[in-house]
Amino acid sequence: MAPKGDNVLVSSKKLEKIFCMKGGKGDSSYANNSKAQAMHARSMLHLLKETLDRVQLSSPEVPFVVADLGCSSGSNTINTIDVIIKHMAKRYEASGYDAPEFSAFFSDLPSNDFNTLFQLLPPMANHGGSMEETLAADSHRSYFAAGVPGSFYRQLFPSRCIDLFHSAFSLHWLSQVPESVVDKRSAAYNKGKVFIHGAKESTANAYKKQFQTDLGSFLKLRGEELKKGGSMFLVCLGRTSVDPTDQSGPGLLFGTHFQDAWDDLVQEGLITSEKRDSFNIPMYASSLQDFKEVVEADGSFIINKLEIFKGGSPLVVSQPDDAAEVGQALANSCRSVAGVLVDAHIGDQLGNELFSRVEKKGTRQAKELLEQIQFFHVVASLSLA
């Protein structure tokens, strides 16, 4: 049973202990509800490969080390690592070098379902074969794998040991809900809401400040852990509006039917309004300017490319005309990324009630949902300054 308590989201240490994408392989698991992320990642592969071409090739006698931060528990991270390593192996060969050994670190919070992730890993290729044979064997992997539990807002690796950092669909998650947002005495108190979307300016500013602090810590630490000549490819949820209270796609995901479901629980007397108001989604969709300001203020990295990328809908359905499938996709999408936090706050039983209501609301508004919900991503290619 997940821990309960009104302030479970305030402390960054508490959040680190419980927060993760929903594990396992069930209907609402992240593994089965990350098809949209997979599609969006595939559409950005050309940008990833541009970053890979900037990485300085070191001696083939030294292993090439890549780390995926916020790897979660599905196959997306494995597919991306495979692309990275095959591309780098070809770069070595094109330069007339033997390919080095490759090592991949999969990193996420300790609560992440690493068991499911490692069960998805293909077996290690026969080390006696040639690199060409290894790369051609799609059913095997050509790299050593290891898990690294920990927050990427803290140090994860020794200094100067990583050639490439990759992080996709993770950096929009904050280390904590800003304390002022759940403090009744604060002007930033997010009364009546469970997300920044449509909130007051003071609430939005508290979220923005938390994002700036967190991203600044992330950049400083990665700047110390990256090898000279190394690069970083980052993708996180972004927004097209200058106004941070307009959170674009995440706003529609968590600021409409999800919000209404919480309000239903309050109106029906299943939870108090205070219980609702002490829950907030620790997520911030950044604008390009927000992101750029933090990178420039930190000074550890040079920006090679920074753009807003139109990713598409987070709802992947086989029958768009089937309203029930759309409603279920909405509920599963919300639950796969925020269900652990909801259950920790109100318990499993009320969590089921909440997401049941999200599904019903999504079913009623299926057509509008599919037409309106659109995710944008901040895509950043950075090299050490």
From TrEMBL:
Organism superkingdom: Eukaryota
Keyword Cell membrane included in the entry's annotation: no
InterPro entries in UniProt: MeTrfase_7, MeTrfase_capping, SAM-dependent_MTases_sf
Statement: the UniProt record of this protein carries the keyword Metal-binding: yes
Pfam families: Methyltransf_7
Keyword set, alphabetical order: Magnesium, Metal-binding, Methyltransferase, Transferase
Protein name: Indole-3-acetate O-methyltransferase 1-like
Organism: Prunus mume
The encoding gene: LOC103333170
